[in-house]
């Protein structure tokens, strides 16, 4: 494998990893937005806030 | 497929601006005080935290600079992406600095300095942080406007009255960019971090969609010859500097390639990147130290793509312009008229170009073709190549989606920066300074002061960054200010968390030593501007030679170890002068040398926390 070929593999890895994770974050983030708003509404924030 | 920016493209952009920012205005009801305004009540879960961190750190300016790096350095630029992946993954998996920072319960870096060291360290750290950050931020809009101008080709508005004999030309791009900043200011002022996080999430989706479709079209573009054609262009026009990031050379008075010093600097830079205040706010807003660690682990992948994907667009732009035999200096972006490079080699047709696998590694000696484009305009040419290329190849509709994605990137970055630097000014400069004078500000007062600073920063951004025409090259100066902050900040946090003997004197020495190389370089640079230029044939003076020797990567590289030396020597000397040894591991009382709030940092040590 020459250097150009190596960088092309790196490029494809970056493209697939970024967009693959993008889909996961887009789906997971939707639920997280509502979770955050529920927490803010109920002031049900994590531990050190209560401290 | 040379498409213009059509009304349909504008419609896509306007719909995005409405849908993408409306939630930001509706979320102000969740703001009760400074905790919600700055860190969204520390209620972010993993995916939302990762989305907002990625959207913040992936701005339009990021896309422009990484594309420029791809155009200039070919595949070698991907090395920066690999380093970003490795270093950020290390931070996420080990929790290095981020877990301790989150567990300490602070909001800003300088606040940590007060808890761990002293209030004076906080004031100095806050001053360096605010200065470096705000100066860096000031030039974003100018580069971003360049992208919008090239992609949309908006003509300036001309108002005239022939009867009264006057006419007024209003620069349209500046007008559009100002309107965007006003929009961002609106939802950031009202909803703070809560609005910023939700709009960041929407902006993350839009920019990922825009980037995805653009990347697919770039990879499938027959005019570059596909991946094989791109590899051929890098081989022919970038030579050894295009495939080996450790190779560097000089041509006339310019540096070609990245080199080992640059890559070593990047390792330190990316390891310390969690210390940048906009990123630190996301760490602080995570709902637990564990969430912060997972967020940084996932962000490693996003940082990898955030670097490599725009770089790919930049390399593809190089392949497009050399294979189409276009002289970028004479490229008519309005009519998209190709102008042939005088005497340029005509490339082989795409179907006959060999694949990357058949290309030999280039010789270490660059050819005349590889050096032909390296002149005093090469950086500007490289910066404009990617938007010019995308404007040429993307069909109507897609280019509107790309611009919507890039505006999403722009807005998410600006909202985060406005909030971060105004938070630093309020929490790390105004509040501790007034507390020193015996004045304690209430939560609501600090909230309104933060909002006031957001407004001031918006005015500064538009006047300094867009409308004000700088007369000198300030890019070098701005790049160095970032390093001046990073070196000291990372050292103070890392030693504060992991070295019990770190103390106030070490903190001051670390901050000063981290900033000193950059300050020295700026002083030398200013001296070269003031000094008379040597006549032709005359040997350059000492100052000019020092300035030429002190490259940005070298300054960046030595700043980090110098900050560490300052911290260690300062702490040990102070300890010795006070006649005390290292504090006992289990001592519940902090030693005077470690500052009154050191026990708070003890509570944040990773081994006790996890």
Provide a short characterization of the protein structure:
The complex is a heterodimer of chains A (51) and B (610). In chain A, 86% of the residues lie in helices and 0% in strands.
Topology:
The complex is a heterodimer of chains A (51) and B (610).
Chain A: H1 3-42, H2 47-50
Chain B: H1 7-26, H2 34-39, H3 46-57, H4 60-73, H5 78-94, H6 98-103, H7 109-116, H8 119-137, H9 140-152, E1 157-161, E2 166-170, H10 172-219, H11 226-237, H12 239-243, E3 248-251, E4 254-257, H13 260-271, H14 277-285, H15 289-323, H16 368-372, H17 378-393, H18 398-436, H19 443-467, H20 475-498, H21 504-530, H22 542-549, H23 552-578, H24 598-603, H25 606-609
Antiparallel strand pairs in B: 1-2, 3-4
Helix pairs in contact in B: 1-10, 1-18, 3-10, 3-14, 3-15, 3-18, 4-15, 4-17, 5-13, 5-15, 7-8, 7-20, 8-18, 8-20, 8-21, 9-17, 9-19, 10-15, 10-18, 10-19, 11-15, 13-23, 15-17, 18-19, 20-21, 20-23, 21-22, 21-23
Describe this structure in words.
The complex is a heterodimer of chains A (51) and B (610). Chain A is 86% helix and 0% strand. Chain A has 51 residues and is mainly α. Chain A is rod-shaped and about 60 Å long. Chain B is an all-alpha fold. The longest helix of chain B is centred in the N-terminal third of the chain and has 48 residues. The C terminus of chain B is likely disordered. Chains A and B meet through helix 1 and helix 2 of A and helix 3, helix 5, helix 10, helix 11 and helix 15 of B.
Question: How much of the sequence of chain B is in beta strands?
Answer: under 5%
Instruction: Count every beta strand of chain B, where a strand is a DSSP E run of 2 or more residues.
Output: 4
Q: CATH class of the largest domain in chain B, anyone?
A: Mainly Alpha
Summarize the main sheet of chain B. 2 strands, antiparallel
- Unreliable spans of chain B are 331-352, 470-476, 582-610
How are helices and strands ordered from N to C of chain B? HHHHHHHHHEEHHHEEHHHHHHHHHHHHH
User: What is the CATH homology-level superfamily of the largest domain in chain B?
Assistant: Sodium/glucose cotransporter
Number of extended strands of chain A: 0
CATH architecture of the largest domain in chain B: Up-down Bundle
Any idea what the shape of chain A is?
Answer: rod-shaped
- Radius of gyration of chain B (CA) equals 25 Å
| CATH level-3 fold name of the largest domain in chain B | Sodium/glucose cotransporter
């Amino acid at each position: 494998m020459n250097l150009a070929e190596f960088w092309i593999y790196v490029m494809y890895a970056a493209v697939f990893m970024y967009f693959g994770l993008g889909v996961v974050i887009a789906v997971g983030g939707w639920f997280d937005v509502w979770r955050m708003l529920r927490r803010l509404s109920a002031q049900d924030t994590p531990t050190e806030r209560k401290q | 497929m040379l498409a213009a920016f059509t009304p349909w493209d504008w419609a896509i952009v306007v719909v995005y601006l409405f849908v993408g920012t409306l939630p930001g205005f509706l979320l102000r009801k969740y703001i009760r005080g400074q905790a919600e305004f700055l860190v969204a009540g520390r209620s972010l879960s993993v995916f939302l935290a990762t989305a907002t961190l990625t959207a913040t750190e992936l701005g339009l300016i990021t896309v422009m600079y990484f594309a420029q790096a791809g155009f200039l350095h070919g595949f070698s630029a991907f090395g920066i992406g690999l380093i970003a992946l490795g270093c950020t993954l290390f931070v996420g998996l080990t929790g290095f600095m981020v877990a301790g920072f989150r567990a300490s319960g602070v909001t800003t870096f300088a606040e940590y300095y007060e808890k761990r060291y002293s209030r004076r360290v906080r004031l100095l750290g806050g001053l360096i942080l605010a200065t470096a950050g705000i100066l860096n931020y000031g030039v974003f809009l100018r580069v971003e406007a360049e992208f919008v101008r090239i992609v949309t080709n908006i003509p300036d508005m001309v108002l005239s009255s022939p009867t009264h004999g006057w006419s007024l030309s209003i620069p349209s791009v500046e007008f559009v960019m100002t309107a965007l900043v006003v929009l961002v200011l609106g939802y950031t002022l009202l909803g703070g971090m809560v609005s910023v996080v939700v709009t960041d999430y929407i902006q993350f989706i839009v920019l990922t969609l825009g980037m995805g479709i653009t990347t697919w079209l770039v990879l499938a573009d027959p005019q570059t010859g596909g991946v094989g054609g791109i590899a051929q262009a890098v081989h022919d026009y970038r030579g050894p500097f295009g495939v080996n990031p450790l190779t560097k050379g000089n041509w006339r008075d310019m540096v070609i390639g990245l080199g080992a010093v640059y890559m070593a600097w990047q390792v330190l830079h990316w390891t310390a990147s969690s210390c940048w205040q906009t990123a630190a706010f996301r760490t602080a807003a995570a709902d637990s130290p564990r969430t912060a660690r997972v967020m940084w682990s996932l962000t490693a992948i996003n940082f990898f793509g955030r670097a490599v994907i725009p770089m790919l667009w930049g390399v593809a732009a190089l392949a497009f312009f050399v294979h189409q035999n276009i002289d970028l200096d004479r490229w008519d972006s309005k009519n998209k008229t190709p102008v042939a490079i005088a005497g340029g080699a005509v490339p082989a047709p795409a179907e006959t170009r060999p694949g990357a696998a058949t290309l030999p590694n280039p010789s270490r000696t660059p050819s005349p073709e590889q050096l032909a484009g390296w002149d005093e305009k090469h950086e500007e040419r490289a910066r404009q190549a990617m938007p010019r290329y995308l404007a040429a190849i993307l069909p109507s509709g897609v280019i509107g989606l790309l611009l919507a994605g890039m505006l999403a990137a722009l807005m998410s970055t600006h909202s985060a920066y406005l909030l971060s630097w105004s938070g630093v000014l309020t929490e790390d400069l105004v509040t501790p300074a007034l507390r020193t004078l015996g004045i304690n500000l209430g939560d609501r007062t600090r909230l309104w002061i933060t909002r006031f600073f957001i407004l001031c920063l918006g005015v500064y951004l538009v006047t300094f960054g867009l409308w004000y025409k700088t007369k000198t090259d300030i890019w070098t100066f701005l790049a160095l200010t970032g390093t001046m902050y990073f070196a000291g900040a990372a050292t103070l946090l890392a030693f504060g968390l992991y070295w019990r003997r770190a103390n106030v004197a070490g903190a001051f020495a670390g901050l000063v030593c981290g900033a000193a190389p950059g300050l020295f370089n700026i002083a030398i640079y200013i001296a070269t501007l003031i000094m008379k230029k040597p006549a032709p044939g005359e040997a350059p003076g000492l100052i000019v030679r020092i300035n030429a020797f002190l490259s940005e990567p070298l300054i960046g590289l030595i700043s980090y170890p110098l900050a560490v030396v300052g911290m260690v020597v300062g702490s040990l000397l102070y300890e010795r002068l006070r006649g005390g040894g290292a504090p006992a591991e289990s001592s519940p009382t902090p030693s005077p040398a470690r500052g009154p709030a050191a026990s708070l940092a003890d509570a944040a040590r990773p081994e006790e926390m996890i």
